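> forwarded from #structure-qc
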């Protein structure tokens, strides 16, 4: 059984889609693809608001109202993003989020905690801290919370 199967899928998806709907209504075109991605990951039906938003964006291209998919759905990366650095942060996000989620209940998120994570992963404490606070590690750690008992069990049994 995959780890994602242990999440309360409906609640998690509903929360994600609520946030992404607000972003979409606020003009964030990339939220359309992110919301579709979440529906596909969870094998869930696409809500009506999302299908309408997608069709409107797609048909703008079909009617030659826009020149590129970036205009319809937003760029894959924001302008000026350093892809190599972003890729490194993306690769570090899960190991850091796991260490945060699995820390001892009394262990606080203080600078020395990120120094410890950095040493374990062979990176500096600032990179560990930035990955957690600036590049999605905190959100991922929150999403992993329902999985902590399952993950601890797997770790203790040597299956991870």
């Amino acid at each position: 059984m995959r780890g994602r199967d242990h999440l309360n899928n409906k609640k998690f998806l509903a929360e994600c889609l609520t946030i992404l709907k607000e972003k979409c209504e606020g003009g964030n075109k990339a939220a359309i693809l992110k919301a579709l991605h979440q529906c596909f990951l969870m094998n869930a039906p696409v809500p009506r608001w999302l299908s309408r938003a997608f069709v409107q964006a797609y048909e703008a291209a079909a009617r030659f109202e826009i020149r590129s998919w970036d205009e319809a759905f937003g760029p894959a990366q924001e302008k000026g993003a350093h892809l190599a650095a972003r890729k490194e942060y993306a690769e570090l996000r899960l190991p850091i989020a796991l260490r945060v989620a699995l820390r001892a209940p009394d262990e606080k998120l203080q600078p020395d905690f990120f120094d410890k994570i950095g040493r374990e992963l062979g990176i500096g404490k600032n990179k560990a801290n930035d990955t957690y606070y600036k590049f999605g590690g905190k959100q991922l750690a929150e999403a992993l919370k329902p999985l902590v008992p399952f993950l601890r069990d797997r770790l203790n049994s040597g299956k991870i």
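QC bot note: The mean pLDDT is 86. Residues 83-157 form one domain.
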